[in-house]
Fold this sequence. Notes:
Elements: E1 4-7, E2 10-13, E3 18-24, E4 31-39, E5 46-52, E6 57-59, E7 67-72, E8 77-82, E9 91-99, E10 119-120, E11 124-129
Parallel strand pairs: 2-11
Antiparallel strand pairs: 1-3, 3-8, 4-5, 4-9, 5-6, 7-8, 9-10, 9-11
Amino acid sequence: QVPLVESGGGSVQSGxxxxxxxxxSGYTLGTCSMGWFRQPPGKERQGVATIGRDGSTNYxxxxxxxxxxxxxxxxxxxYLQMNSLKPEDTAMYYCAARxxxxxxxxxxSFSLRVPxxxxxxxxxxxxxxx
Length: 130
């Protein structure tokens, strides 16, 4: 069973919008944090937005004000609403999670660092044309 499955990627013109979804499976104790990351062609993976168990959020400067991360705990789904898309947003987008351990207290989470997230989805491609 794949723990994280993304969907919603596609091709849009500059200024358009997309909403990415990530369904999480098998997290019986939930997660301490989840996030969206992206990897542009030929570049390293970079943090886009994260959300903590308490709902705390953080965004990369490049997307703040345009992207919104949210989660529906009942549906075990993470979302990324992307508005005012730019060609530089073109990338493979990945969902990531840090699983909550037994008895672990998950405080606010603001990390956008790739090593902080052990679990990863397969990615969904976003292409923005000018």
